[in-house]
Amino acid sequence: MEQDSLIQTTRLYLNTLCRTIPTRRLGTQGNRDATTFFKERIDKFGFHTEAQPFDCIDIRQGEIQLMVDNQSFEVFISPFTLGCDVSAELVSAGSLLELENLKAKGKILLLHGEIAKEQLMPKGFVFYNPEEHQYVYRLLEEKKPAAIITATSKNPEAVGAIYPFPMIEDGDFDIPTAYIKETEGEKLLADTGKEVSLKMESERIPSNGENITAQKGGVKKKIVLCAHIDTKERTPGALDNASGVIILLLLAELLADYYGELGVELVALNGEEYYNTPGQVEYLKRYNGDFNSIVMAINMDDIGYFKGRTSYSFYGVPDKITKKVREVYADKKDFFEGPPWYQSDHGIFMANGVPAMAITEESVVELMAEITHREGHTRDHRPENAGRERKSARGDH
Ligand SMILES: [Zn+2]
Predict the structure, then answer these.
(1) Mean pLDDT of 250-273
(2) In a domain, 274, yes or no
(3) CA of 139 to the centre of ligand 1 (A)
(4) Angstrom distance (rounded) from CA 229 to CA 218
(5) Is residue 340 one of the residues assigned to a domain?
(6) How far does residue 237's CA lie from ligand 1's centre (Å)?
């Protein structure tokens, strides 16, 4: 394809993925429309495509109201939570010890301070799950509060640095949960012991989604190129990650006449932005046994931002391949070898000993290198606090 034609096709794809389709959030019809579109396009270029369906939930959220003595508080509905309409005594815990010693059954529980300092990894998140987080979940489930409000701080080290962030973002946790700014939380804390009413509309709807894989060329050895197709709520996801998906579609077209010995697998993964990454889990379940055939996996996420350059980085890639890739990029001034960045789908390959590369935009890696250096474990990779305007999700993360 000529450059002009590539650009024109890119516009078309971008329009379809970000405008015609209203949202690609996992669980929505838009998400399924996006994977169908991806599959139908790639089919045209002679690839063998396969859908990998899995179950998930869709979420419908409405109003929230928190009242004490006719005074209302600014409060937010946690992602993936169940709704509630409850009036009960307010109790609070600022630490694990306080929570351990608290009677909270049927009450509204305010978590604040030390215990609410970071987001809990979802209960069913298989890739990283610290015991301390699991212990907090167990305690909460034992204590059986009617609802939970988490007051979270402005923590510049937290991913996305969004204030407030939901301490709990977990579709497998069944106690209704809201979140509130630390400053509001302090005001609310003064009402401990009083009757509080919390009403929030949030509903989980059984749904489904799918990954799409597309193969071409030989089967003994292959290179995998992947990009996540889903988005966060209320974001068109042009940069995160329609751009990565579009690269896969353009590659498919460029490879329409490819019949080489080295196999090529293009994968639209689904669920990177969802609490327990079900698409990634499904892909591993089906393909893990075949990972020995992967020469290298290349993940693209958040690429093509109009400011800054594009970063590439290597994870366990043999020197011979690294050298070759560096040669290819050597005279391309818009690209540079960036610092390591772990918070995206190349992680599933790295964790399974498959050489991997990540391609993303400059501000993401700069920011994340700084954060992961300090925290070393977060799974998120949102570049919202990279100092540029961008539609945020629900204020989460
Ligand atoms: Zn992403």
Answers:
(1) 96
(2) yes
(3) 32
(4) 26
(5) yes
(6) 9
Tell me, in angstroms, the distance from the centre of ligand 1 to residue 287's CA.
22
**384, part of any domain:** no
Distance 189 CA to ligand 1 centre (A): 36
Provide φ and ψ at 75, rounded to 5°.
-140, 155
Q: Residue 347's closest CA among 385, 374, 376, 318?
A: 376
Flag whether the pTM goes above 0.70.
yes
Q: Can you give the CATH number for the domain in which 72 is found?
A: 3.50.30.30
Structural domain harbouring 153: 59-205
Cβ atoms 14, 241 nearer than 8 A: no
The model's pLDDT over 216-237, given as tens digits with 9 standing for 90+, comes to 999 899 999 999 999 988 889 9
Q: Same domain, yes or no, for 213 and 73?
A: no
CA distance 24 to 35: 9
Ligand 1: centre distance to CA 242 (Å): 9
Residue 393 within a domain: no
How many angstroms separate the alpha carbon of residue 222 from the centre of ligand 1? Answer: 24
Question: Which of residues 237 and 368 earns the better pLDDT score?
Answer: 237
**Residue entry with tokens 């966060």:** 232
- Are 17 and 31 contained in the same domain? yes
Do 220 and 322 fall within a single domain?
yes
- Answer whether residue 396 shows pLDDT above 80: no
Cβ distance 9 to 3 under 8 Å? no
